[in-house]
Amino acid sequence: MSEREAFELTPKEENFSRWFDEVLFKAEILDERYPVKGMYVWLPFGYELMENVMNIMDRLMRETGHKRVYFPAIVPESVLSREFRFIKGFEDSIYWITRLGRRDLQEKLALRPTSEAIMYEVLNRWINSYKDLPLRIYQVVSVYRYETKATRPMLRVREIVFFKEGHTFHASYEDAVKQVELGVDIYKRFYDELLVPYVVVKTTPWDTFPGARYNYDLLTIMPDGKALELGSVINFGDLFAKTYGLEYMDENGQKKPVNTTSFGISERSLAALIAIHGDDRGLRLPPKLAPIQVVIVPIPTKGYEEEIDRYCKEIFSKVRIKYRTVLDDTEDRPGYKFYKWEMKGVPVRIEIGRKELEERELTISRRDTSERIRIAEDKLEEELDVLFHDIEENMRSMAREYFLERTYNAKSIDEIKGNVETKLVSFAWCGLEECGHEIEEEVGYGILGYEEDALIGSGEKCIVCGSEAKHRAWIGRSY
RNA sequence: GGGGCCGUGGUCUAGCUUGGUAGGAUGCCGGCCUUGGGAGCCGGAGGUCCCGGGUUCAAAUCCCGGCGGCCCCA
What we know:
The protein is built from 13 helices and 23 strands. It is an alpha+beta fold and 479 residues long. Strands 3-7-8-14-11-10-9 form a 7-stranded mixed beta sheet.
């Protein structure tokens, strides 16, 4: 942290990484001064914001028939280790409990890196018959992964605090396929509400988790041009179920392996929202998510203090009925308060001074455009509804524009090379593994995924081999 | 994964080379005056100099180890 002033930020365009750290701290989202690397304290304002984000997800999950559960954070090694065969080095990324008090443990315990293993173990007892299927559950828990040296607040962490993981269980593979489509759809609706732009891709076979049949990712682009994985939807088919002996009895009395899927998102969703919408004054929050939607700032004038105070309270009592509202009647000067609440991303500010008092007309300033307007007091309620709708639509179109600015559709490998350092680049791909590898080799970055069958019938040619292109693939730097 | 730089009241930092009273700004508390984009003045509180060990009469300063942070490269 290099800035001295409480409400001043390193310009986002100059150094995104520094801007991001500063805004998290100065907007009171996270306290980064926790003495364990890769772990951070969530402050009240940040927690409330994240709760609002998670409430949207919770609603979407309930609407689509997923039931919330809780499985413990501690998993025995014998259960978890069956998963090790899928990922090389997986064991090294796990936090192990090896002692209880002064005694060494006979069997090590792990802090869950994800919950598939323990869930499948337990679900063996829940699932007996085809009548028990499909089963859709999810939980919001912390997961622990000792991964990278290069930790970053909210982006690359060792404790993912808000991990929403859905797990589903199906009789047929076809049902699992449909479930994955539903999972992708849930995530699309989620990010649409967050006003975060994304692209849905299927990961390449050589970059897909070995225990999975296939895997869809939602990707977005951060202001530094790097891709961020926003969510993942995995179809395991019966691979995982076979590992854990998860079977059901079908209509004919035959035992069959269960088909399973999982899908997860985390606080990275909020990281993307903050990174994409924030500016050099701080957060810019979508009205639906902002912990504080309206702030009222009194502008006292000598001799009118009491009248202005009374008027502010009157307006406050009206506005708070419908919107999460704060009346900032602290002793600070108005200008100071403007900067403070702009840092926190409050979408609408109402300024009330002598002028407003006498004219019965309020001054309203919107965070998304910095525009100031006057609204007659008796029209306030209806005008606020219109204004909030307008802010949301404006932020949505800003997000769309942002996404277009940072993507590039390349027609050749040279064009990829010329843009890949600053943008996410898409290109036409035939789908052959050797063409994919050649591009990765040439460009020096991995293919992040591809929009499946997006180019069938388009007439576009694979930029490597020149044959008919099937997919629009994406390549770039990533987190 | 490899290399480099760094850690001093809440925050930003001076002091470290050449060992000897930890200084400033900002923030915080009280008061006065004020309030339309970070006011000013007066008074006050606030420190394990990241942690542990070593060298020394004496360590923020020198040495070793650890923890934490940042940057570059893979």
